[in-house]
Amino acid sequence: MEPTNPPRPARAKREQPAPAPITQELVLRAFIDNPDKVLAYRQLSRRLGVTTKQQREEIFGYLKKLRQLGAITLLQNDEYRLADVTVAPVPEQPAKGKKPAKAGAPTSRAASREPVAEFGQDPIVHRRREAGFDYVGGDSRPSRDANTVIGTVDLATANFAFVIPEAEDADDIRVFTDQLKFALQGDVVRVRMRGSRDGRPVGDVVEVLKRQRPEVVGRLQVQGTLGFVKPDNRKMYFDVFVPPHSLGDARNGDKVLVRIVEFPEDSHRQPVGEVVRNFGQAGGNEAEINAIMAEFGLPFEFPSEVEEESEAISDVIPESEVALRRDFRHVTTFTIDPADAKDFDDALSIEKLENGNWEIGVHIADVTHYVRPNTELEREGKHRATSVYLVDRVIPMLPERLSNGLCSLRPNEDKLTFSAVFELDENGKLYESWFGKTIIHSDRRFSYEDAQERIETGEGDYTEEVNTLNGIAKKLHAQRFKQGAISFETQEVKFRLSPDGKPLGVYVKERKDAHKMIEEFMLLANRKVAEFVFNLKKTKPRYTMVYRTHDAPEPERLQNFALFAQKFGYTLKLDNPKKVSTELNTLSEEVMGKPEQNVLQGLAIRTMSKAIYSTEPLGHFGLAFAHYSHFTSPIRRYPDMMAHRLLEHYLLGGKNVPVEPVEDECKHSSAREKLAANAERASIKFKQVEFMADEIGNVFKGVVSGLTERGMYIEIESNKCEGMVRLSDIPGDTFELDKDNYRIVGRGSKRIIQFGDELEVVVKSANLLDRTIDFDLVDNRPDDVKRREAEERKAQRNAPRGYREQSGGGYKGGSKGGPKGGNRRR
User: Fold this and answer.
1) CATH class as words, domain 215-282
2) Distance between CA atoms of 101 and 93, rounded to whole angstroms?
3) Which of 436, 418, 422 is nearest to 358 (CA)?
4) Domain 695-794 carries which CATH code?
């Protein structure tokens, strides 16, 4: 029987509109529009029209980021409210009769109406530590009581810095980054002492007295109209907010230099900056190399007045100047430099004397003849202090007209020089030394390869002269090591580059006899110049001079190195200071060609003190010289120019020079040298990462060069590129760091991997933006073991959730509910 009321036909389903996208700006806007209200997750969901699981997850993510930013505060459970202080990136139009608010100034919750953008990846803004962990609360106004110390900031990690006190005998003070008041590298600060932790003084910055360089280089991230710069320097502990009107032409993903224009008092906020230079999209060669230059404060060009001064210098040598100099133009003279060099600092002359000895001249470009005191050239050279050699370019200390032209000892040209001339026999015995201004005419420009060919084959022009010099150099070398010189050398990485700067190959520069020959004569000149000035006056105060000094290593560091070397089977007796060089040289010979060579030699060098410039004649431990200076490279090093001026002054009978100004210039030059070395390493690392980006999936042999709790560093033998294998990615076991024995140990298998072990790795990734390389270990276990492990992992994945076995033993039960569900007990 048919029903009296037949069913209605089914309605056609109406297409549901796609849910509106949820953004971080929308979430923050809900709080900004309700500055005094407490909003729970459910209220936010209703206000924003949340309908899907994906949208709910997005809200949770945004709430977490906004908490990290310090924009909102978690009260309890899932209830939030707007934080007390935020950033007003765009000034609003002021009401009539009122002054406009300054961009980026602190404002109340109710006054702020602009959303805060995403603060980059893994933001570190509110860096509050747990109670009792040296956290300073309450009043933190600047204090000048006896419990404060003035010092210079040295950033160590993103978590803490050291403040180096002005007093030389005081210990460095550790300051955690949430108590640095946004101080940067090199800033002068006042620190309030807070006791000690782990035996080291701990304090908090209460006042930044002098900001050295308030600039940051990093990648710009833009959301909406707001920008944040995430610094390239991993020691940087904050990002920089850039308001819309300060972005210029920079876009999302560009590498930029930003100048900080406002440092907030409140650590919950971010410094405010403006883009002053845009390098282009991050990852490109020009963008990254220029960013490295900006990061280390290297100049991009010479000021116009400096260029004008250099162009105005005459290239004509007047006869009146020649008459004041010793003339070497008739003596066989040549330069030996890298094949791609353009600035030739030094030349060698050789002439046989009637008594059978050799007169060998070390002729150095007379830069100070052209660069006069109180000129723009002098001021710029003093500021730069050194040329910087990045992978694909040179940042010269002096303009090209001087460095590659007037001062460069080019062949077949008369050149003005400052010379050290020695009478030596074929056994390297020194009879006479002479120092003074000269003029030379180079007969030949050799590359190192050209000179090496004459040494190895005995054929070609000037073969007799080159081999005579090489023979004497070998004798000088032997004398140095007999006196206690140390032979450890770092390996120099070089690149073959395409015209657009892309690395086509990486290799280690090989030092042959031609390199060592030039080095020995430069060392001889530097040593004898230092000895000459030191001996001009037999009583204190000695004549002021620029010395290159190198202290003996600290006994504790030597003993630590000896313990490390012992792990590789090498016994070192380093408790006798007189035997240190002998022991280290013996080790250097024993490790030659072995997998651990580079690791041990590198660590030995790091064990040594750093060489610096000083007016104190303290000697050079590594070279075993009682007195040593830098005289031979004035085109690229300002201390050499200083040494030239002082030596000329004393040769002309001048009185002693005040020590303080010279010592200040020595300290400045040492600091600039360190900065240049760091910039050069950064450019090398970038090119290594760029090179390895084309090697993804390829297998290389490497050695363990470092160990941390996160992973082990592997240095590839063939190209010295270094990357990390994460401990969690090592197949077949769970590995843990045994830092006391410089190794990692498998928890189950007890497999040991230590420094210097040879391993095969496959290139996993190469991140140009972070300048990091990741490796995976090549899994050489039997195929049946790999299959069994894969099957166990598959079975574990397919097991019921409540009964999946966890690594480390036991079973983990599931939890129900959404964000508030599950067992919250800790």
Assistant:
1) mainly beta
2) 9
3) 422
4) 2.40.50.140
79: number of CA atoms within 13 Å, CB side?
6
Length, in residues, of the chain? 826
The three state secondary structure string of 135-194 is CCCCCCCCCCCCCEEEEEEEECCCCEEEEEECCCCCCCEEEEHHHCCCCCCCCEEEEEEE
- Give the pair of three-digit tokens for residue 681: 């390493």
Q: Can you tell me the distance from the alpha carbon of 724 to that of 314, in angstroms, rounded to the nearest whole number?
A: 55
392-401, 532-541, 607-616, 807-816: segment of lowest average pLDDT: 807-816
DSSP character string of 630-642: --S-TTTBHHHHH
Three-state SS letters, 89-100: CCCCCCCCCCCC
DSSP-derived 3-state class of residue 772: strand
Phi, psi of 501 (to 5 degrees): 90, 0
Tell me if 606 sits within 8 A of 558, measured CB to CB.
no
- Whole-angstrom Cα distance, residue 460 to residue 450? 9
CATH 2.60.410.10 is right for the domain spanning 24-82: no
Q: What stretch of H or E contains 55?
A: helix 53-69
The dihedrals phi and psi of 498, each to the nearest 5 degrees, come to -80, 170
Percent helix, percent strand, percent coil in the chain, to nearest 5: 30, 25, 45
Predicted TM-score (pTM) of this structure? 0.77
Residue 717 is encoded by which pair of tokens? 């033998």
The SS3 assignment for 31 reads: helix
Q: Is residue 72 within 8 Å of 81, Cβ to Cβ?
A: yes
Domains 215-282 and 695-794 share a fold: yes
State the pLDDT confidence band at 135, using cuts at 50, 70 and 90. very low
SS3 220: strand
Quick: pLDDT tens for 697-755. Answer: 999 999 998 899 999 999 998 888 999 999 999 988 899 998 888 889 999 888 899 88
d(CA 560, CA 447): 42
From 735, 752, 755, select the one nearest 564 (Cα to Cα): 755
HSE value, Cβ hemisphere, 13 Å, CA-based, for 683: 30
d(CA 436, CA 363): 10
DSSP three-state, residue 554? coil
Instruction: Give Cα 167 distance to the centre of its chain.
Output: 27
Domain boundaries, the chain: 24-82, 148-210, 215-282, 307-529, 695-794
